[in-house]
Amino acid sequence: MDQDFRRSMGWLHTWAGVVLGCFLFAIFWMGTLSVFDSEIDQWMKPATRIAPAQQTLPLETFRPFLEEAAAHKAAFWNVSFPNDRQSVAEVRYRIGRKSISHDIDPHTGQVLPEAGTLGASGFIFPFHYTLELRFMGLGEWLVGLSSMAMLALCVTGVIIHRKLFADFFTFRPDKKARRVLLDVHNISGVLGLPFCLVITFSGLAILGVTYFPSGVNALYDNPRSYFNEVNSLGFLAGKPGKPDNTKSALNDMEATARQLWGGTQPGLVLVARPGAANARVAFFRESEQQVVMDRAIVAFDAVTGKIVSQSSTVRPIIRVQHFLSGLHFVHFHHWLLRWLYFVLGLGGCTLIATGFLFWLDSRRKKQGATFGFRLVEGLSAGAVTGIILATLAFFVANRLLPPGARCWGLDRSALEVWSFYAVWLVAFVHGWVWPRKVWGVQSAAISLLAVLAVVLNWVTTGDHLARTLLHRWLWPVGGMDMVLLLGAGLALLAAVRLSRKARQQSGAALPVSVRKAA
Length: 518
Hints:
Strand order of the largest sheet: 3-2-1-4-5-6-7
Order of helices and strands: HHHEEEHHHHHHHHEEEEHHHHHHHH
């Protein structure tokens, strides 16, 4: 009975990984990069590489942007202030379906040149939980299904490995490739097991309303009330009124909020329904020193300047939601833990990739010519090395495209995104057309593109490593370059070893007489 149970768990572990591994790798890869989305944004937006200002700009500095948003009847307007992860202020508002944002120089209050890129926060982070499949929320449903598969993989992995902790301390690089792959798979699985469980479960909890809306519908007359409570946006209640030209002093409101918080400055200011008679101005206190995502809020009537709402104690279930969200999004600013998240995320990617490679290597002799095997081989190559190549192409395009570039009706940011998809598609096709050498060739291409991205950053901005490491505000740029160079070295090492293995297999496949003659 025990043997049959373990066999069934092994079957579930294998096929859950094979069927949904492509989505899982993309989710983990983009999620890992999103840990440093602000730092990647700084690399992709050279104009934002500015030394931090000693003093915060007065809030009235941003009044022209607020008036512009009000003139266009924007639904909201907000400004986020500089912090230890970004030196510039950012103004955002939405007109219809168009989102408008401006980066603001923290010293002068002037608008910085348009970056022409979505960056990591505008493309990589949304890709992590939507897969950019927005039609009927298909991407979020695939992410949810893949997350459930990941939980199943974690549980079945523990069941089928009797000597779990012994496997963690077992690594035999001198053995055959299949044994090495299994050892790396086991080590990354055991080391990252708690992280994978927590990060996967918290992700499911965050998107839980998408999958089980009946719970919200049973407790709330309007689902919007639930979202307002979760995001502490209760002050938004009320229908839009008639426009009113009365202008309350933003600086006075900010001073009141600071006084209530004991001098702590706000991290975000949001104006709901700017220009309307029932407009609201809300100040969100920074909460970077805690895991829970429930920043204190003080909201004012935009016309009279009177306080209309303050943060109140939330229900325990909402508090749990805030805790899981903060844990998943790395809401707290702790650099050691942020790097730990990044390394463990890469460990999850390694776990998925080695699972694919082990499955392929163990079945190549018997099933190598079958359609199913060829399909999985092409999908796995495109999903693993292919998406890494596509991401690097996204970075290279960012440094190659000139400001204001347009082609086929697409602006610069869209061209960057399409370069990602074009290279990703080529990687999939390459996996099906040339399967035996795809891993080595794409690993070599990853090494080349990573180095190219570093060189292009140097050539186009002048920010080489010797400069970025000497100035603290440029450390994110230097860190990005160093990670790219480290990745290039690892990819080159993998390409060399795979090439050597391919030559050995080709030699072993030759007749004995030919090998002796050689």
